[in-house]
UniProtKB/TrEMBL annotation:
This is DNA-deoxyinosine glycosylase. Coiled coil: none annotated. It comes from the Bacteria. GO terms for molecular function: DNA-deoxyinosine glycosylase activity. Residues 8-160 form the Uracil-DNA glycosylase-like domain.
Amino acid sequence: MPRLNGLAPVAGPHTRLLVLGSFPSVASLRAQQYYAHPQNHFWKILQALWPAFPLPEASAYEARCAWVLARGLGIWDVYASCEREGSLDSAIRNAVVNDFVALRTACPELRLIAHNGSESYKHAKHTSAFGLPVLRLPSTSPANASWSLERKRATWHDAALQAGLL
């Protein structure tokens, strides 16, 4: 199985809500962009949270990252690297967890950590050590078909509200 490396965090000193996925999909690794699969609900949910601020196009990823940071949101994954064929979390093997301590230091305004899906949430013990609230959000992945887009949006809205982003 190939050894894959994840993406750098999108976070900064004004990040108040950190969203942690598990590991980038094949499409995201290929594009070197978080949530690059066109059917992932992540970007649609964020646009619904801040409708007054137009989300830049996927082709303008740097602008999307700046847009996210301007809202106080950070994006990262629990795994720095892993072995995996395909994009399913169930195929992840021999994963190495990211350095959350270093990221916490870089984000002094962090108020809330939200795990995007159950695989990410398996590592809540690492993130809860910071003494911050930790939530499990429904996965934005197209594989999570049991949750409607609206139901996901409502749950993500509550997290953004709790972090003081709305």
